[in-house]
Hints:
alpha/beta; seven-stranded mixed sheet; five-stranded parallel sheet
Amino acid sequence: MNVFNFKDIPTATMADINDLYDIANQIRLHSLASTTKAGSGHPTSCFSIAEVMSVLFFHTLKQSKEYPKHPSSDRFVLSKGHAAPVLYAAWTVAGLLTEEQNLSLRQNDSDIEGHPTPRLNFVDVATGSLGQGLSCGCGMAYVGKYYDKASYRVYVVLGDGESAEGSNWEAMAFASYYKLDNLVLIIDVNRLGQSEPTQLQHDTETYRKRCDAFGFHTKVVDGHSVEELISIFDEAKTVKDKPTCVIAKTFKGHGFTKVADKHGYHGKALKEDHSEVVAEISARIQNKNLAHPKLIPFEDDAPKIELTGITLSSPPNYKLGDNAAVRKAYGVALAKLGDSCSLITTFDADTKNSTFAQTYKDKYPNRHVECFIAEQNMVGVAIGAACRDRRIAFVSTFACFLTRAFDQIRMGAISQTKVNFVGSHCGVSIGEDGPSQMGLEDLAIFRTVPGCVVFYPSDAVSAERAIELAANYNGMTYTRTTRAETPVIYHPDEVFEIGKGKLIRHSIDDKVTIIGGGITLFEANKAADTLAAEGIHVRVIDLFTVKPIDKELLIENAKATGGKVLTVEDHYSEGGLGEAVLSAFSEETNITVKMLAVKEVPRSGTPNALLEKYGISRNKIADAVRGWAQ
Length: 630
């Protein structure tokens, strides 16, 4: 059995150790004070990791309260985000937060929120949706080891309950595969979950075997022993080619006898017991005059970077009328961006030969991170890698597979991430692979994400420009790439902007405005040719960005065609292009919108047959216009 063996600790004196015990109890008192005043929170979850936080912050982590997110400082991720008060308490002890700020927990005008967010200058990623912190930590550690080649280390505290989340094990497989020996995972095994005991309770041996099997250097320690924690954190710095996992056996509510290791106190402030808790914890503090302890300085060895000059090394090289796949243009654009900026980094889930991230990997193999078939972890890794502006991340896979990582994407928005997502194989137009491979929900998903720009380029030229715009955008983006080849309709020097669409066909006789994107733009154009031969004229708009949408362009052209608008999309009707257009007209009168979209679960078939079957082909578009246009 691989259990902790106590040994001499050369890095700490007995006085240091006593101070760290005192600091742990100070952390408990600050956690208690903030949750009591707020009337809510998770004090017992904070109490279980007080010693862990004390040893990490005041013996192990190299950081600065003057510049908490310095590129060279150690990273800390509290994956069990409900224990946020313990993080605020640690920074209060360090002197970054005042006691008054700490006591503003959960107030509507305070950044000291119920779960950590990067509104605070010492938080890299938002946590609290459990099971995501380790993936982000893996991204930070990967960048530190392979790109920055710096001495900073990454520490992640995971709750035992959240260890049931599969994304953690995706992350552990990633960490061991890439030999992230600068990563330390601490699992707080406090036995009790929210509504009942956790699966393994205090079976630390099973935890150890599982973490060992995933390739971690694993040790079981008493999570309330400062001495054992110091020893294992010191040891972790000597481990090579393996991440370290510390299985910390703790007790929820430790420090207050009445609630320690007792069920029923999760997420409850100890308001009625406040005085009793303060008395019991305070009695254990030996040094009553312990001032703000100093943090350990870091070595400033991370390279300086500049996020400027991110441009295509050459303009799009296509001729009007050429056939080219948008997904292929994505890879070409990445390679061109990589020529001008070495920070461009791609993340893929074993689909790179289909998404065409392979093009970038072939040119810049060391700037591609293969995450294998583990999309939730891939998203978290990219979010972590992009922290502190260390990388410009592009995440690509089939659009349908991004749906399983939507919680990570949602949390990415809360984390203020600048990750760029790219989804290929969209809609029924992919054909024979069938509905499980068809991205039909992706526009709806990304439209809901605050601040996310949603690109829908229709040809190769607009695709390259979309990726260039995405790389320079200060926030999250999503680009929808079509599988099939489509004609090039834009000149290489065409200018594209976020929130600006293109009117690609119009006349003074137009009766209907048709709005499409990707494959349906070309179906609309072909329908327009058919209708023109019948004497019915329509205009066609390419949205380019579904979000933000070009309201001015849409309203102007809708009014020019008598308020008649037809939207066509290779996407489910809910939340997609059509409803985005409807939102643009929400304050307008005398505009009618008809929507053609996929309205049922599709099936396999040839692309053209499926476009026809599900009502979004050139023929169905022409049918929808006839009669209405008279």
